[in-house]
C-alpha cells in the first residue's frame, strides 16, 4: 500500500516465469520420441520451452538389427522408456547397438527318414557389426539332430556370412511335419526364424475324407503300404466316419526292372488306380462282395513312377489291398520299400478371390450395404501346390473398422467346395451395421505351417482391401463390365448405388441404347429441398450410334426424359455432373424429404438431335442473358420455380419444353445488347419478386386495384 500527499510515480516490474528445455542425443540407428515436448529424434532433438515441473516421457524406437543398449545423462538403465520432471535444462543420450539380421533361404525342408538334408542361412551385418553370432536349433524331436557350420559365425562389417544347418534324421522319427526354430545370438541382439521340417517315409501320402466322394475337409497321414484287411466296420483312422468315407493316396512307386507288372486290387468298394497319370483300374462303384481287379502295365524304364489310388466306402464292411507281380517278383502286397511319399514343393498356399458371379474380383457380395445393416458374404479360394489342407481354424477373414479389427475378428471361414490342389472355396457371412466403412483381408496356414495372406501386393493388416461400404459414403465406386465408375456428391451421402435393369422400368425411348445401363442410386442426409451436385467419372468415353444425351427415368410419369448435365461425357470425355434437387428435378420420389432417388444414364438416340433439357440447374436462357450469370440470385429463383411448380405437372412441362425450343435465339440477341438486357431485367424483376414473395405480390396487387376503384368512384 502507498499513501501519498502529493503527486508521485510508481513503477511495477514483472519477471517472466522460467522455462526449460530437454535435449536428446543418440548413437546408432534408432529414434527417440517424447510425450509431450515435440521431440522426434531423428529430426527434432530439442524440445520447445517447457514450464517448470513438466513431466516428459521419452520412448526409444530401435531400427531392425539395432537393439537399444542404454540411456545416459538424465536417464539411466536399459528400459525402452524414461520419465523425468523438468526443474532445469536437461540432456539425455540414447545408445543403439550395432547388430545383424538373420534369414533363411527356405522356410521349409523335406528329408526322408534315415537320411540327412541341409538349409542355408544368411547373417547380415548392420552398422559395421562384426561380433560372432551363435546359432542354436530348438523344437527338434528325438532322433533329429542339427549341426551349424560355421558356428559361431561372424559377418564382415556391413557384409554377410552364410552358415549351413545340416539335419540328420534317424530311423525312429515319425513321418510328419515339425516346427523348428533357429536362433542367432550376438552382441546385444537375438533373432529367430522358423523352419518347417517334413520327415518323409516310405509309403504313400493318404488324404482321408469324411465323405464318399473325396470332398470336404480332410486328415492326412503316411501309410507304409495298402494292406487294410482289418478295417471291418470301424473307422480307417481316428476322426473319420466309419460308414461314409473316402481316401486318396499319392506318391511314387519304385520299379526295379523295365518289364511288365500286373497290378491287383482286392476290395468290396469303389476304387481307381492311376500309374504315371494314366487310369489303369476304374471300379468306382459299391459292391456287396469282394472283387479282384487286375491290370498289366509295361514299364520301359526303371526308377520312380507316379502312383495315385482312390477309394470310396459307403456303408458296410471296408477292405482294400494293393498287390503286384512280375517276371522278377512273386505275387505280394506292394512293400513299403517300393513306395515313397510325394515330393513336397515347400511352397506356401495361395489365397485369391473366387471371381464367380456376384463376387466380381474381390470376394465380397454384396458390394454395398443398406441403412438397416446387411449380411455380407466373404469368399476366398485356397490353393496348395502340395495339396496340403489348411490347419483347423483357417482360412480366416480379418474385418477391420477404422484400422482396428472388430470384436471376434479374425473369423474362421466355412468350407464350400473343391480341393486344396485344384482350389478349395471357403466362405463366411456376417451382419455389418450401417454407418461405417470396413476393410478386410484373408489369411491361411497350411498343414505344414506355411502361411498365405491374400492380395494386394503389400498384404499386411495396415494395407487391407477396401470395402465393404456399409451405410453411407460421399464417394462410391461401382464395378461395371467396362471398368470402375466413380461417383461423388456435394451434399448428403450415398446409401445405395447399382446398375439398374431396364427391364424393370419401362420401355426406353425408341432407337435408344444405354452403353452402361442406367445408374440407380439413393442419396440421404439432405436438408428437405436441398440441391446436390452428383459427379460421375466413367472408365472411358461413351460411344454409340446417334446423338449422346443424358436420360433420367421419371418414375412418377413412367418415362425417360432428357435432363441438362455438364461435363465432358456427351462431347467425347468421361465425366458428367448433374444438379439434383430434393423434391424437384432428378428426384424420383418427388418429395422434399431429405432423400433423392435417381435412375439415369448416358444414352444414344439414333438419327435425331437431343430433346430439350429439363431441369438439372440450367436452361433459363433469357434470364441468364439478362442478368449476366447462371448463378445470379434472380436466375436461381426462376430455376427453383421451374423445378417446383412447372416440371411437376404436364401443362408446366409442356410450357417449359416450348420455352426451351424458342428461347435460345432470343437470348443470343439479348446478350449482345446492353439496352435490351436492361429492359428484360426491368420486365423480369417484378415477376421474380412475385415468385419470391407471393403474399407481398398479392397485397401489392390488392392495393393497386383498390386505388383504381377509389379513383374511379371519385366525383
UniProtKB/TrEMBL annotation:
Domain PA14: 199-338
UniProt cross-references to SMART domains, sorted A to Z: PA14 (SM00758)
Record keywords, A-Z: Membrane, Transmembrane, Transmembrane helix
Alphabetical list of InterPro entries matching this protein: Bacterial_rp_domain, CFI_box_CTERM_dom, Choice_anch_U_dom, PA14/GLEYA, PA14_dom
Residue ranges the record marks as coiled coil: none
Sequence intervals crossing the membrane: 682-705
Protein name: PA14 domain-containing protein
Amino acid at each position: 500500500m502507498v499513501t501519498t500527499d502529493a503527486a508521485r510515480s510508481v513503477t511495477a516490474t514483472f519477471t517472466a516465469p522460467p522455462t526449460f528445455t530437454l535435449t536428446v542425443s543418440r548413437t546408432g540407428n534408432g529414434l527417440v520420441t517424447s510425450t509431450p515436448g515435440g521431440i522426434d529424434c531423428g529430426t527434432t532433438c530439442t524440445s520447445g520451452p517447457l514450464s517448470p515441473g513438466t513431466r516428459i516421457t521419452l520412448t526409444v524406437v530401435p531400427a531392425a538389427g539395432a537393439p537399444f543398449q542404454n540411456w545416459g545423462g538424465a536417464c539411466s538403465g536399459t528400459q525402452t522408456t524414461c520419465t523425468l520432471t523438468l526443474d532445469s535444462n536437461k540432456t539425455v543420450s540414447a545408445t543403439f547397438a550395432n547388430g545383424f539380421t538373420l534369414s533363411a533361404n527356405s522356410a521349409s525342408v523335406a528329408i526322408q527318414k534315415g537320411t540327412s538334408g541341409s538349409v542355408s542361412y544368411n547373417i547380415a551385418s548392420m552398422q559395421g557389426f562384426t561380433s560372432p553370432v551363435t546359432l542354436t536349433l530348438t523344437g527338434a524331436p528325438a532322433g533329429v539332430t542339427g549341426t551349424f557350420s560355421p558356428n559361431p559365425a561372424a559377418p564382415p562389417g556391413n557384409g554377410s556370412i552364410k552358415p549351413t544347418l545340416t539335419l540328420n534324421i534317424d530311423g525312429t522319427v515319425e513321418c510328419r511335419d515339425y516346427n523348428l526354430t533357429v536362433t542367432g545370438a550376438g552382441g546385444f541382439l537375438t533373432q529367430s526364424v522358423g523352419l518347417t521340417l517334413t520327415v518323409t517315409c516310405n509309403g504313400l501320402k493318404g488324404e482321408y475324407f469324411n465323405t464318399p466322394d473325396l470332398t470336404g475337409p480332410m486328415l492326412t497321414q503316411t501309410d507304409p503300404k495298402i494292406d487294410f484287411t482289418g478295417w471291418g466296420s470301424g473307422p480307417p483312422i481316428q476322426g473319420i466316419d466309419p460308414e461314409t468315407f473316402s481316401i486318396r493316396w499319392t506318391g511314387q512307386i519304385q520299379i526295379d526292372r523295365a518289364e511288365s507288372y500286373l497290378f491287383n486290387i482286392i476290395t468290396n468298394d469303389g476304387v481307381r488306380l492311376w500309374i504315371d497319370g494314366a487310369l489303369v483300374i476304374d471300379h468306382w462303384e459299391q459292391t456287396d462282395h469282394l472283387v479282384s481287379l487286375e491290370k498289366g502295365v509295361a514299364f520301359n524304364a526303371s526308377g520312380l513312377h507316379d502312383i495315385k489310388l482312390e477309394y470310396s466306402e459307403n456303408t458296410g464292411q471296408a477292405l482294400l489291398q494293393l498287390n503286384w507281380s512280375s517276371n522278377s517278383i512273386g505275387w505280394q502286397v506292394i512293400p513299403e520299400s517300393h513306395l515313397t511319399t510325394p515330393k513336397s514343393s515347400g511352397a506356401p498356399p495361395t489365397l485369391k478371390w473366387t471371381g464367380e458371379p456376384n463376387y466380381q474380383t474381390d470376394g465380397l457380395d454384396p458390394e454395398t450395404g443398406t441403412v438397416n445393416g446387411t449380411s455380407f458374404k466373404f469368399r476366398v479360394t485356397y490353393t496348395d501346390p502340395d495339396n496340403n489342407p489348411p490347419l483347423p481354424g483357417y482360412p480366416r477373414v480379418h474385418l477391420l473398422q477404422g484400422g482396428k479389427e472388430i470384436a471376434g475378428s479374425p473369423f474362421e471361414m466355412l468350407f464350400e467346395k473343391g480341393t486344396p490342389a485344384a482350389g478349395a472355396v471357403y466362405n463366411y457371412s456376417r451382419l455389418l451395421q450401417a454407418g461405417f466403412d470396413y476393410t478386410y483381408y484373408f489369411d491361411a496356414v497350411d498343414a505344414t505351417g506355411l502361411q498365405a495372406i491374400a492380395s494386394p501386393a503389400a498384404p499386411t493388416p495396415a494395407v487391407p482391401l477396401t470395402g465393404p461400404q456399409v451405410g453411407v459414403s460421399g464417394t462410391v465406386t461401382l464395378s461395371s463390365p467396362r471398368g470402375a465408375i466413380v461417383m461423388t456428391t456435394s451434399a448428403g451421402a450415398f446409401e445405395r448405388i447399382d446398375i439398374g435393369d431396364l427391364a424393370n422400368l419401362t420401355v426406353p425411348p425408341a432407337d435408344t441404347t444405354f452403353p452402361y445401363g442406367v445408374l440407380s442410386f439413393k442419396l440421404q442426409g439432405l436438408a428437405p429441398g436441398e440441391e446436390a451436385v452428383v459427379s460421375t467419372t466413367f472408365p472411358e468415353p461413351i460411344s454409340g450410334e446417334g446423338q449422346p444425351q443424358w436420360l433420367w427415368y421419371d418414375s412418377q410419369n413412367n418415362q425417360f426424359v432428357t435432363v441438362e448435365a455438364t461435363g465432358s461425357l456427351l462431347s467425347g470425355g468421361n465425366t458428367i455432373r448433374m444438379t439434383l434437387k430434393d423434391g424437384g428435378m432428378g428426384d424420383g420420389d418427388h418429395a422434399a424429404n431429405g432423400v433423392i432417388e435417381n435412375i439415369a444414364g448416358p444414352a444414344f438416340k439414333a438419327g435425331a438431335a437431343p430433346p430439350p433439357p429439363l431441369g438439372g440447374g440450367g436452361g433459363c436462357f433469357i434470364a441468364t442473358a439478362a442478368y449476366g450469370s447462371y448463378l445470379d440470385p434472380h436466375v436461381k429463383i426462376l430455376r427453383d420455380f421451374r423445378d417446383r411448380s412447372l416440371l411437376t405437372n404436364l401443362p408446366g412441362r409442356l410450357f417449359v419444353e416450348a420455352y426451351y425450343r424458342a428461347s435460345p435465339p432470343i437470348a443470343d440477341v439479348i446478350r449482345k445488347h446492353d439496352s435490351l438486357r436492361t429492359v428484360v431485367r426491368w420486365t423480369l424483376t417484378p415477376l421474380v419478386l412475385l415468385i419470391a414473395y407471393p403474399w407481398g405480390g398479392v397485397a401489392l396487387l390488392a392495393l393497386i386495384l383498390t386505388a383504381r376503384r377509389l379513383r374511379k368512384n371519385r366525383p
